[in-house]
């Protein structure tokens, strides 16, 4: 089909040439035969070249034209009444998506703010499971949540489009966001034609008139203002040819331009041009096409660009580096204004509109904002999983769309918590820089929401969240207490545990005498207190009673396959894990005893929208929900009265949280793992050389964690017990059943059927020991005051 | 599809007769009827106003079963603890504001256990997708609902149903178990979840476990 026009052209050209050759042969009778043969050979060679070039032109143009790297998206922000979202966070997200402020949100991409109300016209998006239409919605905020949501008719919820957070590129690569011609904003095609190729809609691929005009314009302007190449020639040059500037290449370019015009309509050539043109360099990534350039320079979809922005991009075609608006704003503005001027001169816009546009700022999006596609730690996690499941070339060239669970707002808060806290804490001993990592997941669904791989989150180096394997210290303890509480006939939250000195045979010939952090023993303590105060001697004694292999099995059931050997020292966390593994382990505690594989990818779509991979939510119950409830109770006491209580210096005490500190030998690693109803976060502080930090879990990692939680507005853990839990009043001193009317009685949850019977009445006598102890403490304080 | 529908119909009739021996009821708070072609285009988040008009005067659970005509009709309804949020969606005024503050102190329930606007809308979308045989997207919509209301056992119930239809009985059982852990005090829902577990165990060849689950369903009702 497509070959036919070429055949016609060749026949026409051939006839012309033959006619002319015959005439000339009359003049040169003697050499006629020779010349004719030479011309014929030339013709055949030329025809062969044309046929070859034609094949090249068609082959590349009709197939898949570009290798498009996979695009990775963050979670879309959901809007509905009751959603936990502050107005500031909402505006941050809108800013990152390139929404612009306006009086009223008339068209997609506009937002109008008045007081606590934000009107936004969403852009719409093709999600894996359906289309989200572009629509105007109104959102009201009250504190950390959306208090009212409304839209057209019965609308109860809407989604913003997801933020593009990165792509999967080979080492050196072209990147582009493919657009269709009808997605071009007003003036783009007009100004492009006006500046680059005025005769585009009239010529047949090359334009002698254009060349002449360019020569004239350049001559009168005294510099090269216009190029003589047509858009078609430019497309051919970029699309098919190398960039050497020989005459032969110029000739080939012209032939191919003509061939391209023969086969394809102007619109298709123009669309290809809009997608092909080189518009900047972003590190190792080459920015091609107006679609990506619009995102790269303005953080906005192309179709929303206004005249002054369009003119800027069109002006950059001539020299993307030379006119880079970020590096050379003045030069870039001069070029932009010239483009606008040319449009006015050619009557596309009025002089007053031109002046208005020229008065505008460049409006280029700042880099390093949320919009910047820079989430190296999270992208690393995504890529590792994808590379297990897809071929590299599919990832880098097939235009896959990958939807992830990253929450850019929480990511930003996690990064700030890490950076801010490390700055406040200062360097480790010896002026060594401290490092950090953080993982944040959705407590209920196991989705990874934020990931910080080091003190500088923009640096894509060693990803500590995934690769720093460190002893976990006391973070192991919940596994021990969980093993105990699974035996309700033997252990409850108030079972007395002996926190007195203990010596064990660690390895043959060596004994081990674990110490408490405060170097003191505390005698008999209730089980919950042994955990919340992180007493080592009580914990080791309990762990030995349960059996180390039993405890290590519990760790596996919690979700981490560790391969640890059952040494007693494992009971104090000499086994090592990565922050991500710790997250996996604590996920089961945060999630009511259900193990959920951590997930970061929600779905993978082919370029045509066909789903390639889905990563459905899956759970497996590993622990009884009543046992987990008791664990959460004990771990929430860590926060209110134990090692984690300084968190409430930063967080409202009305929010029920649960967690555990972890510190390793000689203060090398500082850990904290804790959760609310909706968020689980694990933070680690330490040194890459594994040296000392002078920090405990409480003075280091907990501070990062609390700084994050303060900003994340978590939902408190539900205090509502499951059905197999009963509450009972007990005497705090004796642990026996009591009555709410008695002094010193507290309500404690038990597994149904294992609560102590109601006591005989209130304890008649005052506990003299406790009074004595209190009195001597008072005396100590008074003694300190005396000189 | 037809056999599934017939099975649902048959088992639902059994429930009506008073024998809870077979699963398949759909304790989803939803008062919708056959979704028209226009409403198919409404997209997620849009609850067709028409639905509300078919709602019974007293809000409650209406168990829907698909009928042969492709629509669905109510076969069972009972009062339910999600009433507060439904009351804010009166049935007569289609132009009303559907904003439902969920932090309110309505009853003793956790805020996220109330089925309000978005979750209800997503369950409707999911059922629609399921009826069209699009289980993958039905699952995606239900997971979206789960992110909004992770402790809502009705969402987990629906997700378990979809998993069962997708042929993943093991996961269906686990999801139903998880639903149970959040369904304290909601006996009808518990019975439905146990019945679902029974079905899931049956298809995994565990008939003793299935019988045990059925027994539990009977006790909870």
UniProtKB/TrEMBL annotation, chain A:
Transmembrane parts of this sequence: 34-53
Molecular function per GO: carboxypeptidase activity; penicillin binding; peptidoglycan glycosyltransferase activity
Any one GO biological process: response to antibiotic
Reactions mediated catalytically: [GlcNAc-(1->4)-Mur2Ac(oyl-L-Ala-gamma-D-Glu-L-Lys-D-Ala-D-Ala)](n)-di-trans,octa-cis-undecaprenyl diphosphate + beta-D-GlcNAc-(1->4)-Mur2Ac(oyl-L-Ala-gamma-D-Glu-L-Lys-D-Ala-D-Ala)-di-trans,octa-cis-undecaprenyl diphosphate = [GlcNAc-(1->4)-Mur2Ac(oyl-L-Ala-gamma-D-Glu-L-Lys-D-Ala-D-Ala)](n+1)-di-trans,octa-cis-undecaprenyl diphosphate + di-trans,octa-cis-undecaprenyl diphosphate + H(+)
Alphabetic keyword roster: Antibiotic resistance, Carboxypeptidase, Cell membrane, Cell shape, Cell wall biogenesis/degradation, Glycosyltransferase, Hydrolase, Membrane, Multifunctional enzyme, Peptidoglycan synthesis, Protease, Transferase, Transmembrane, Transmembrane helix
Domain Bifunctional transglycosylase second, chain residue ranges per copy: 79-151
InterPro entries: Beta-lactam/transpept-like (IPR012338), Glyco_trans_51 (IPR001264), Glycosyltr_51/Transpeptidase (IPR050396), Lysozyme-like_dom_sf (IPR023346), PBP_1b (IPR011813), PBP_transglycosylase (IPR036950), PCN-bd_Tpept (IPR001460), UB2H (IPR028166)
Keyword match DNA damage: no
Protein EC: 2.4.99.28
Span of the signal peptide: none
Ranges where the Penicillin-binding protein transpeptidase domain occurs: 437-677
GO CC, one annotated term: plasma membrane
Residues annotated as domain Glycosyl transferase family: 172-343
Location in or out of the cell: Cell membrane
Primary residence: membrane
Role according to the record: Cell wall formation. Synthesis of cross-linked peptidoglycan from the lipid intermediates. The enzyme has a penicillin-insensitive transglycosylase N-terminal domain (formation of linear glycan strands) and a penicillin-sensitive transpeptidase C-terminal domain (cross-linking of the peptide subunits).
Protein's name in the database: Penicillin-binding protein 1B
From TrEMBL, chain B:
Cross-referenced InterPro entries: TPR-like_helical_dom_sf
Protein name: Uncharacterized protein
Gene3D superfamilies from the UniProt entry: Tetratricopeptide repeat domain (1.25.40.10)
Polar residues composition bias: residue spans: 84-111
Renumbered residue ranges of the record's region Disordered: 39-58, 84-112
Signal peptide as annotated in the record: none
Pfam families recorded: TPR_19 (PF14559)
């Amino acid at each position: 089909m497509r070959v036919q026009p070429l055949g016609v052209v060749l026949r026409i050209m051939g006839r012309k040439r033959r006619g002319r050759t015959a005439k000339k042969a009359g003049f040169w009778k003697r050499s006629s035969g020779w010349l004719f043969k030479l011309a014929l050979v030339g013709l055949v060679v030329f025809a062969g070249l044309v046929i070859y070039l034609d094949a090249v032109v068609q082959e590349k143009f009709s197939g898949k034209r570009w290798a498009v790297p996979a695009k990775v998206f963050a979670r879309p922000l959901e809007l509905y009444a009751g959603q936990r979202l502050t107005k500031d966070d909402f505006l941050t997200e809108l800013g990152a998506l390139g929404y612009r402020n306006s009086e009223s949100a008339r068209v997609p991409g506009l937002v109008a703010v008045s007081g606590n109300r934000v009107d936004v016209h969403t852009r719409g998006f093709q999600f894996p499971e359906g289309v989200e239409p572009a629509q105007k919605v109104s959102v009201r905020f009250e504190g950390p949540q959306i208090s009212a949501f409304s839209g057209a008719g019965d609308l109860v919820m809407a989604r913003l489009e997801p933020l593009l957070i990165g792509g999967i590129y080979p080492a050196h690569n072209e990147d582009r966001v493919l657009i269709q011609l009808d997605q071009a904003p007003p003036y783009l095609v007009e100004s492009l034609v006006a500046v680059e190729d005025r005769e585009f809609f009239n010529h047949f691929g090359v334009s002698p008139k254009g060349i002449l005009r360019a020569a004239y314009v350049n001559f009168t302007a005294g510099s090269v203002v216009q190029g003589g190449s047509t858009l078609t020639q430019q497309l051919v040059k970029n699309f098919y040819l190398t960039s050497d500037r020989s005459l032969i290449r110029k000739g080939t370019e012209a032939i191919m331009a003509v061939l391209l015009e023969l086969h394809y309509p102007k619109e298709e050539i123009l669309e290809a041009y809009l997608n092909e043109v080189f518009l900047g360099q972003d590190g190792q990534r080459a920015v091609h096409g107006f679609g990506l350039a619009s995102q790269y320079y303005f953080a906005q979809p192309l179709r929303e660009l206004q005249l002054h922005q369009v003119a800027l991009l069109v002006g950059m075609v001539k020299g993307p580096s030379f006119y880079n608006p970020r590096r050379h704003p003045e030069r870039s503005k001069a070029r932009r204004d010239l483009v606008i001027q040319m449009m006015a001169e050619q009557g596309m816009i009025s002089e007053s509109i031109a002046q208005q546009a020229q008065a505008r700022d460049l409006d280029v999006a700042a880099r390093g904002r949320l919009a910047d596609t820079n989430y190296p730690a999270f992208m690393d996690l995504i890529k590792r999983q994808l590379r297990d499941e897809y071929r590299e070339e599919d990832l880098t060239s097939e235009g896959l769309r990958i939807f992830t669970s990253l929450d850019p707002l929480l990511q930003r808060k996690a990064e700030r918590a890490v950076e801010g806290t490390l700055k406040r804490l200062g360097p480790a001993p010896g002026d060594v820089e401290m490092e950090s990592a953080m993982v944040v997941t959705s407590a209920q669904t196991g989705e990874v929401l934020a990931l910080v791989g080091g003190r500088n989150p923009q640096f894509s180096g060693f990803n500590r969240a995934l690769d720093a394997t460190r002893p976990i210290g006391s973070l192991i303890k919940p596994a021990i207490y969980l093993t105990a509480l699974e035996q309700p006939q033997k252990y409850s939250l108030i079972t007395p545990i002996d926190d007195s000195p203990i010596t064990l045979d660690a390895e043959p010939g060596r004994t081990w005498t674990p110490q408490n952090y405060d170097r003191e023993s505390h005698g008999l303590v209730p089980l919950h207190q042994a955990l919340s105060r992180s007493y080592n001697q009580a914990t080791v004694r309990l762990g030995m009673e349960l059996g180390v292999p039993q405890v290590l099995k519990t760790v596996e059931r919690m979700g981490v396959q560790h391969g640890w050997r059952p040494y007693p020292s494992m009971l104090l966390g000499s086994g090592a894990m990565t922050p991500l593994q710790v997250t996996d382990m604590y996920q089961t505690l945060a999630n009511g005893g259900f193990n959920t594989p951590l997930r970061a990818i929600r779905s993978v779509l082919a370029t045509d929208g066909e789903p390639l991979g889905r990563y459905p939510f899956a759970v497996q119950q590993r622990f009884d929900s009543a046992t987990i409830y008791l664990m959460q109770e004990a771990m929430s006491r860590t926060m209110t009265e134990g090692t984690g209580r300084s968190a409430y210096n930063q967080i409202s005490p009305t929010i029920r949280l649960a967690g555990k500190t972890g510190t390793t030998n000689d203060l090398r690693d500082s850990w904290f793992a804790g959760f609310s109803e909706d968020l689980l976060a694990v933070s680690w502080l330490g040194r890459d050389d594994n040296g000392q930090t002078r920090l405990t879990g409480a003075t280091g990692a907990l501070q990062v964690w609390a700084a994050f939680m303060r900003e994340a507005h978590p939902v408190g853990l539900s205090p509502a017990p499951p059905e197999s839990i009963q509450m009972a009043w007990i005497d705090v001193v004796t642990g026996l059943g009591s009555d709410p009317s008695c002094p010193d009685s507290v309500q404690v949850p038990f597994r149904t059927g294992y609560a102590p019977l109601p006591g005989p009445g209130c304890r008649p006598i005052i506990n003299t020991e406790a009074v004595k102890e209190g009195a001597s403490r008072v005396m100590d304080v008074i003694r300190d005051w005396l000189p | 599809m037809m056999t599934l529908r017939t099975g649902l119909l048959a088992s639902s009739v059994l429930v009506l007769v008073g024998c809870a021996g077979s699963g398949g009821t759909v304790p989803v708070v939803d008062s919708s009827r056959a979704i028209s072609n226009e409403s198919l285009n409404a997209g997620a988040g849009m609850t067709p106003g028409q639905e509300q008009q078919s709602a019974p005067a007293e809000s409650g659970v209406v168990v829907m079963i698909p009928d042969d005509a492709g629509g669905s009709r109510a076969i069972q309804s009972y009062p339910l603890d999600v009433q507060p949020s439904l009351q804010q969606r009166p049935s007569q005024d289609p132009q009303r504001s559907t904003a439902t503050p969920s932090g309110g102190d309505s009853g003793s329930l956790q805020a996220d256990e109330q089925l309000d606007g978005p979750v209800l809308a997503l369950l409707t979308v999911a059922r629609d997708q399921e009826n069209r045989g699009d289980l993958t997207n039905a699952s995606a919509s239900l997971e979206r609902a789960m992110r909004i209301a992770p402790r809502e056992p009705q969402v987990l119930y629906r997700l378990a149903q979809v998993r069962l239809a997708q042929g993943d009985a093991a996961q269906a059982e686990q999801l139903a178990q998880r639903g149970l852990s959040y369904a304290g005090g909601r006996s009808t829902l518990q019975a439905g979840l146990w019945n679902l577990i029974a079905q899931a165990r049956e298809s995994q060849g565990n008939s003793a476990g299935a019988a045990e689950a059925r027994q539990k369903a009977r006790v909870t009702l």
